[in-house]
Amino acid sequence: MLMVLVLGLSVLALAVAWGLRGYVLRQDNGTADMRKISDAIQEGAEAFLRRQYRTIGTLSIALGVVIYVLYAFFRKPHADEPAAATLALTTTLSFLFGALCSGVAGIVGMYVAVRSNIRTASAARSSLNKALQIALRGGAVSGLFVVAMSLFGVGLLYTILEAMHFEPTKIPLMIVGYGFGASFVALFAQLGGGIYTKAADVGADLVGKVEAGIPEDDPRNPAVIADLVGDNVGDCAGRGADLFESTAAENIGAMILGSGLALANPGVFSPAQVVGLMLFPLVARAFGLVASIIGVLLVKAREDEDPMHALNRGYMWTAVLAAAGFVGGTYWLLNPPAFPAAWWHFALCGVIGIATSIAFVYITQYYTEYRYRPRPRGGTSRCAG
Questions:
Q1: Which of 58, 79, 206, 310 is the most exposed place for a label (fewest CB within 10 A)?
Q2: Dihedrals φ, ψ of 345, to 5°?
Q3: What is the pLDDT of residues 338-378, one digit of tens each?
Q4: CB-based contacts of 292: which residues, under 8 Å, 6+ apart?
Q5: For residues 258 and 276, what is the distance between their CA atoms, to the nearest angstrom?
Q6: What is the largest CA-CA distance in the chain?
């Protein structure tokens, strides 16, 4: 039942992300002059990503072979672990599957990103609210795909191994390669895209502004196009791969802790409660996906309103719903009879974490937004720079 819920909500999030992709691509893509610049950025980003993922794919297969050899021939499993050949095969396949899912999430996110840019710019000519929604929903495609693919991959691997009658408490150790595969892709995707965009940015500034006197981000400077290409492949695909790796590793790590807690207290938890302990991080993440979907769809701004107000409202709805889902999940899955008060301690930790994230949002806004400029004691506003 728990895995059906996790996989079902993951598929729902992927379907919503695909629907948001369709919404973005249906919008007006601007004038011919706008498309000329946008097409150049799109062409460069897709060419870079094809070359990058071709290299990552080759290296992933090579490393997968190394992992299999190390697990099968050089690592002796512990007494309570599966056989060496079984552990080697499941770890290697989960590694390759994690790398594949991370790559798919990055490609889909960047595909929409390079196409939502021009549609946001085109909408901004007539409507602030329309531009805000296109930009946010274009970014939500990447965000939802990253988290949902991570969750779906872990859930699918667990379901397959459970159907093969492996002990549930042993499964997290057998799929740990999934997080490693995601980390491997993130290493190259983020570093490759980041180095590319920084090199182009420095080149555009030195040659354009310093030598040729061309203003910053002027499309007459070819390095500016390269810089914008790097922003997409680094900040969209690269950052997406990094977030994918983080969520995958956190989910599997928390599952290992849950199984360890159950094994350290034999006889205290029933088999269903042991599974609940292990799958709680997946359930909590799935509830967070639902909260994020609702928050994204609720963002709407008046034409004369500061867009940050609309974004903050959507974020607050998401935070409240995520907190409610987290509290409900702890009461459902972390409430064994032997520890009747444990669930609300976990719930309180989660709520404090969500509250801290909200505080960070407003602290960051205070130090970075134009509305909070420093004011001298005399009363007259003066902002250096």
A1: 79
A2: -65, -45
A3: 788 889 999 999 999 999 999 999 999 888 887 887 776 65
A4: 140, 143, 144, 147, 318, 322
A5: 9
A6: 76
HEC string for the chain:
CHHHHHHHHHHHHHHHHHHHHHHHHCCCCCCHHHHHHHHHHHHHHHHHHHHHHHHHHHHHHHHHHHHHHHHHHHCCCCCCCCCHHHHHHHHHHHHHHHHHHHHHHHHHHHHHHHHHHHHHHHHHCCCHHHHHHHHHHHHHHHHHHHHHHHHHHHHHHHHHHHHCCCCHHHHHHHCHHHHHHHHHHHHHHHHHHHHHHHHHHHHHHHHHHHHHCCCCCCCCCHHHHHHHHHHHHHHHHHHHHHHHHHHHHHHHHHHHHHHHHHHHCCCCCCHHHHHHHHHHHHHHHHHHHHHHHHHHHHCCCCCCCCHHHHHHHHHHHHHHHHHHHHHHHHHHHCCCCCCCCHHHHHHHHHHHHHHHHHHHHHHHHHHHCHHHCCCCCCCCCCCCC
CA distance 167 to 108: 35
Q: CA angle at residue 85 from 84 to 91, to 5 degrees? A: 85
Q: Is 318:292 a contact under the CB 8 Å cutoff?
A: yes
Whole-number average pLDDT of the chain: 87
pLDDT band for 238, please (50, 70, 90 cuts): confident
- Chain-centre distance for alpha carbon 40: 27
pTM, two decimal places: 0.87
